[in-house]
Amino acid sequence: MDLGVLISGRGSNLQAILDAVADKRLDARVRLVLSNKAKAQGLERAAEAGVPTTVLSHLEFPDRESFDAALVERLQQAGVEWVVLAGFMRIVTPVFLDAFPNRVINIHPSLLPSFPGVDAQAQALAYGVRVSGCTVHLVNEGVDAGPILAQAAVAVRQHDTRDELAARILQEEHRLLVETLQTIAHGGLAIEAPAEGERPRVRLRR
Does residue 108 have an active-site annotation? Predict the structure, then answer.
């Protein structure tokens, strides 16, 4: 499984992938780590693991489509077949999605479809839910709206702060993302063609 990982920040989910590859818990190769921010800590994590890195600032492009076209070019040059958005704070366009059809994966810190978008942990606390969690899903043109692959629940404690809840969810993110990628690496992703007007049916064969 030839992976490209896109990041914008600290890259803790990237580290989980790198550790799993090194420990032979994930049958994959990270071909490229790409960030839209030059100071993203995840770039250092990749370099320490000997993985090539590239920085492409979205500010240097006139629109989302031209930025995404540049991302696609770099990823394809590196031999990437699957893309993981691991804290990549950009919404990708059809230019990107069409280059990797049903092969762009995101990890989100809520039980989608609840609390999509930014700071899902704070959204969950504000709403007063008793259970939150994380979701691994395929990416489509919507915001955190693609077909769900796997989810893990995390209890919300009575006096949780946003950071406390986020830390516990993040632990589950690391586990769930690696397990899902390993299932896909072994041919466990099934996508059924949708009927007219319906979404594709997606399931993991574990």
Answer: yes
